[in-house]
Design goal:
This protein is an alpha+beta fold. The chain is built from three helices and five strands. It has two domains: 66 residues, no CATH class; 27 residues, no CATH class. Helix 1 links the parallel strand 1 and strand 2.
């Protein structure tokens, strides 16, 4: 990842709250500049490191795999169909490495 300090943890408690919107905006800004973002499910505590595919260097994907997670790319079904990766799918398509 291009962020030398690693992923930042952003927290938000209420989805309709201005703080939640600000947290999402900060996360998007981090992704746009090439940094990773940690998303944590409040219910079960599980998390995921998210990195924009355009910014994910081979070393970052290798680091995620070494940490025990399977790198995956999520793209819209229409894009997957255009690339002949998935036909007839709806919504988003997950491409695991």
């Amino acid at each position: 990842m291009s962020n030398a300090t690693g992923p930042r943890k952003l927290r938000s408690d209420a989805p309709g709250d201005p703080k939640a919107r600000a947290a999402v905006e900060r996360a998007l800004a981090e992704l746009r500049r090439g940094a990773g973002v940690v998303l944590v499910d409040d219910e079960d505590g599980r998390g995921a490191v998210v990195v924009a595919a355009a910014e994910c260097a081979r070393s970052a994907a290798g680091m995620m795999a070494a940490a025990g997670s399977v790198p995956a790319c999520v793209i819209p079904a229409t894009r997957a169909a255009a690339l002949s990766l998935a036909s007839g799918a709806e919504g988003n398509v997950v491409l695991a490495c």
